[in-house]
Amino acid sequence: MTLTSPIVVPTQAFAGQRPGTSGLRKKVTVFQQPRYLENFVQSLFDILPEQVGPFAGQTLVLGGDGRFHNRVAVQTILRMAAANGFGRVLVGQGGLLSTPAASAVIRKRGAYGGIILSASHNPGGPDGDFGIKYNIANGGPAPEKITEAIYARSQTIDALRTLEGGADVDLGTLGVTELAGMAVEVIDPVADYAELMEGLFDFDAMRAWFAAGHRMRFDAMSAICGPYAKALLEGQLGAPAGSVVNGEPLEDFGGHHPDPNPAHATDLIAALSGSDAPDFGAASDGDADRNMVIGRDFVVTPSDSLAVLAANATLVPGYRDGLAGIARSMPTSCAADAVAKALGIACYETPTGWKFFGNLLDAGRATLCGEESYGTGSNHVREKDGLWAVLFWLNLQAATGQSVEALVRAHWARFGRHYYSRHDWEGIPVERADALMAALRAGLPALAGQTLQGLTLTQADDFAYTDPVDGSVSKQQGIRLLFEGGSRVVFRLSGTGTEGATLRVYLERYEADPARHDLPTQEALATLIGIADAVAGIRQHTGQDAPTVIT
Ligand code: VG1
Ligand code: CO
Predict the structure, then answer these.
(1) Residue 231 in 3-state DSSP?
(2) Strand locations in 11-127 (E)
(3) Model confidence, pTM
(4) Is 551 close to ligand 1, i.e. is its CB under 6 Å away?
(5) What's the CA gap between 384 and 296, in Å, rounded?
(6) What tens digit of pLDDT does each residue of 181-205 get?
(7) How many Å lie between the centroid of ligand 1 and the Cα of residue 433?
(8) Given its phi and psi angles, is residue 388 left (phi above 0), alpha (psi -120 to 50 degrees) or beta?
(9) How far is the CA of 194 from the centre of ligand 2 (A)?
(10) Closest ligand 1 atom, CA of 371?
């Protein structure tokens, strides 16, 4: 038997280990460099005692979305956690945990925090992306103060603590083993999460809905939601076997982009078209925190989804008593604001990224949260939650007997429609993208009060957010052009990509008149699309003719 003993290994800093919108994401090949992952993890362990408090003897949750490099990384982190003095690691069987399940486990087990291995919606495989993020004791993504401290430490780090000798920990069998004095508990990745869902939704009503012959197709995109969706939809709710497709997690997601939107989930869109299609379609992303929901021949925007869930929340047992408030990221449409106003509750506007919702949820100010990027969630965890949103929609259909399309159309008739689209310009050389944003920023003062293509600008600014709970300030979170009548154009650069820069252009127009609720979205937004290009000079700066992805 080889002895396993703690060692200190010298190391050198790597440039660029700054977490973005959601953790540190790089190419797998970058993470495969010796000590790259180790440096980041040690930087995290180095700053935690001062930023959060001592962790000696405490519990860490660990798991990932199963993408390529997950298995290697889990073993590395187990050794480092033991060498750094954690008392116990709860790790999902096979090293797997979806992002929302990790959040649920951290909260339920009272863990000190958790490490989630995922690059979420980014492609995987040996040439794809890998990622790591840290979640705090509330189950949510570490706030900027912590991510910035990790980054700062990563730039001065010179030594790592790990173990030498010994074999890999067996993660295939549930139960507890020991690693250099630390307990490693392999847990069922689905159990805690499934129990939480049962407490929120009317499972009997949903069972009856399926028993009555309704059909759904859930596309797990060969990512981590498969086991969760199968256990809940097919296992507990009685959806016919085969309702969950692409339900086996694959290390390379079958070569696809595990990004649930109409541009990447084309199979699902096709399968939901025609009179013989299932009643309900849904998909989730690499780490199962995003969702797309669609009806038969009917796509729902994530912004509308948040608003519909909020407006109907009291039909669902877990939200029967109503909502404390709603929070949405700034680029997300104002559909949720209209609902909040009608309900007489607050609606918060935060920067992009789930980490900004944590304080509002902890303080009991918001109950539901959402982002335009196919992310929806509530105070049940501190992450967005793909399957939760799907169950919510199922519960609404079961409770009302109405189709997805009928629910959304009734919503528009009551609140008006917020036409919405996001145009992504990917693969822009970083200097060019930076130049575009700098020019936009510089041009802001001259814009206010102008009339552009017939629309009057009421405000043009760079969004800054002051957290109402802890007072922390986040600046330069996106350039906004706000027009009379509620139209908006927002520009920001992505913080999750690993190649060049991605410009995201968010477009929104409000339409109260039901007679005009059936326009094709891009047509409804044509004027704003023209304004966006004219003001930002997108084609000129990028040298590209058209956005690469439109959702
Ligand atoms: C994108 C989305 C953002 C989301 C983030 C993480 O960030 O726009 O809304 O919170 O991804 O989602 P960015 O910086 O690329 O625009 V996930 O499911 O990839 O963790
Ligand atoms: Co995700």
Answers:
(1) helix
(2) 24-27, 59-64, 88-96, 113-117
(3) 0.95
(4) no
(5) 25
(6) 999 999 999 999 999 999 999 999 9
(7) 18
(8) alpha
(9) 19
(10) 9
